[in-house]
Amino acid sequence: MRRGQDEGVFADHVPAPVLALTLEALMPALAAENAASTWADPAGEAAAIALLVAAGVAPQVAALRVREVLDESEGHEGRSDVRRFAASARSH
User: Fold this and answer.
1) What is the separation of C-alpha 87 from the centre of its chain, rounded to a whole number of angstroms?
2) If 82 and its partner were Cys, which of 16, 22, 44, 55 is the partner (CB 3.0–4.6 Å)?
3) What is the spatial distance between Cα 86 and Cα 18, in angstroms, rounded to a whole number?
4) At CB < 8 A and 24+ separation, what contacts does 41-48 make?
5) How distant, in Å, are the alpha carbons of 6, 26, 31, 56 from that of 13?
6) What are 39-92's pLDDT values in tens digits?
7) d(C-alpha 57, C-alpha 1), whole Å
8) How many Å apart are CA 3 and CA 89, to the nearest integer?
9) pTM for this entry
């Protein structure tokens, strides 16, 4: 998170450790909503985008990054895991 904040990817108005904990707490709710709502999609794309937007990433950038991760995972699992994506996002 800190590196992402330093690079201007994530919002920096909240300390990196607090933002990371907040997003970790938000993730299960987004995953549950993704599975149960009308905006659900099999890859968890909407939930992953929402997670990045909550971290301060511009919606268009978040959508592009999520699509990149999903494209990388196609053929490996058939379904992207939101938790795996969030871990990937935290490392960037």
Assistant:
1) 8
2) 44
3) 15
4) 42/79, 43/70, 43/79, 43/80, 44/79, 44/80, 44/81, 44/82, 44/85, 45/70, 45/80, 47/82, 48/80, 48/82, 48/85, 48/86, 48/89
5) 12, 18, 25, 9
6) 567 667 888 888 888 888 899 999 999 888 888 877 655 444 555 555 555 555
7) 12
8) 11
9) 0.59
| Tokens 């707490």 -> residue | 25
- Alpha carbons 92 and 39: distance in angstroms, whole number: 26
Amino acid letter for position 26: L
Please give the DSSP secondary-structure letter assigned to residue 15.
-
DSSP 35-82: HHSTT--TT-HHHHHHHHHHTT--HHHHHHHHHHHHHHHTTTTSS--H
